[in-house]
Every structure is written in structure tokens, then in C-alpha cells.
Amino acid sequence: MKKSNDVLCKEVMEAIKWEPILQSSKIQVSVQDGIVTLAGTVDNYNQKKEAEHAIKNISGIKTVVDDVVVDLSDSAIRNDKDLTSSVIKALSEKWVIPNHTLKVTVKEGWVTLEGVLHWNFQRQTADKAIRYLDGVRGVIDKIKIQAEIDNEIEKEIIENALKRSWILDIGNIKVRVDGKTIFLSGIVSSIFQKEEAERIAWDTKGVWQVNNELFVELD
């Protein structure tokens, strides 16, 4: 049964209020036909990311538009040079990210990451490494994935990996491979499932790109 806008809005608000880290946030929620828009302000970038994560498993959400603004306190604002040094240091402490592979630029608290990595989990690690730093307003991800392994990607291997995930119904997911790119299409019942399918696809050896065309539809 399809949820009304009001019901879905209430569930989203409850999920956000449940998170201790979001108690100081001023997040506003609006819903229209399964499209959830988050607006308002939070104190730091980590809160912005946590708000997105808190609602991913709510059924009925088709997509999330994140318009939340990081409103830093005066004490949290840092100059670009100082924040750049902190970001570089945070990245260097993550052994899964090879040294000197990412270029870091900062402008008014916005961090841009550029470069080439071999795995998507390395890109995710980079984001997590800096999300807790004071002074970060947001991250612009321009990292490219180019796998070291030059092997042919087999569709069956990806499908078997998706089957092993207890939260996915592989019968509703279609996989297509074109060179180094994996395409996912079909239907899932939550954003969490959509992202889980993409995560599994990214774990495939040799992949350079994943196009996630899965559609979220309430059962």
C-alpha cells in the first residue's frame, strides 16, 4: 500500500529525531510522491551525512533531495589553507588510500577531491576520513575509479554476489555488463537496497563504473 505524503513525512521526521547526533539540527522535511526533500541547517558535515543515512531504510522513499546547509559556528570556521592541511593529514592516515594519489583543494569549507583510485571502497574511505573534520561544509567528489585488474567482468559473478545478500530480491534486479561498466536496472523497495546493490556491483574486480538505474517502489 502506497504511503501518503503526510505519513511518509512523519516517518522521516521520526527517524531523524531518533538520532542523538541530530538533536541540535534544524532539518525540515517535505514529501511529494515519494520524493523526500531535506532542507534547513546542521552544525557540521557529519550531521548532514547522518541525516541522509538515517532515512535510507524507510520504505516508500523513491529518492532524497538533500538541500541541507552546513551552518558552521564562528569557532568551527577555518581558513582554506589550514583545512587543506587537515584533510591531507586525515587522508594520509588511511592506509587503504595510497599516498599522494588525491589532489585536495578547499574553498570556503568546500573540499574537492580529485585523482584516480583502484577501488570504490577507497573513495568511500576518503569521504569518511574528512567528514568529521571541523570546518568542512561539503565534499565535491571528482575521484575516478580505474581498476588495476584488466580482466573481463562476468555478469554471472555479479548476479551470484547479489543473491548472497539477504536484503535483496535478485528476481527484480537485472544486470548488464558493457566493458568495464556495470548497469543495474529493475525494482527494489528502499534506497538502502538500491545502494546495497550498487555497493556489491562496485566490489566486482575490474569495474570502472556502475550505472545504478534501479527504481525504488513500495511493495
List the topology elements.
Layout: H1 5-18, E1 26-32, E2 35-42, H2 45-54, E3 63-66, E4 69-70, H3 80-92, E5 102-107, E6 110-117, H4 120-130, E7 138-145, H5 155-163, E8 173-178, E9 181-188, H6 191-202, E10 209-216
Parallel strand pairs: 2-3, 2-4, 6-7, 9-10
Antiparallel strand pairs: 1-2, 5-6, 8-9
Gap from first CA to last CA: 7 Å
Query: How large is the count of helical segments?
Result: 6
Helix content: 25-40%
Helix and strand content put the structural class at alpha/beta
What would you call the shape?
flat
**Share of residues in strands:** 25-35%
Provide the residue-averaged pLDDT.
93
User: What is the rounded Rg?
Assistant: 19 Å
Write the H/E string, N to C: HEEHEEHEEHEHEEHE
Q: Which CATH first-tier class of the largest domain would you pick?
A: Alpha Beta
Number of E-type strands: 10
CATH architecture of the largest domain: 2-Layer Sandwich
Task: Provide the number of structural domains.
Answer: 3
Please describe what this structure looks like:
The structure is a single chain. With 219 residues, the protein is an alpha/beta fold. The chain has three domains: 5-70, Alpha-Beta Plaits; 80-145, 2-Layer Sandwich (Histidine-containing Protein, Chain: A); 155-216, Histidine-containing Protein, Chain: A (2-Layer Sandwich), CATH 3.30.1340. 32% of the residues lie in helices and 30% in strands. The chain contains six helices and ten strands, in the order αββαββαββαβαββαβ. Strand 9 (181-188), helix 6 and strand 10 (209-216) form a beta-alpha-beta unit.
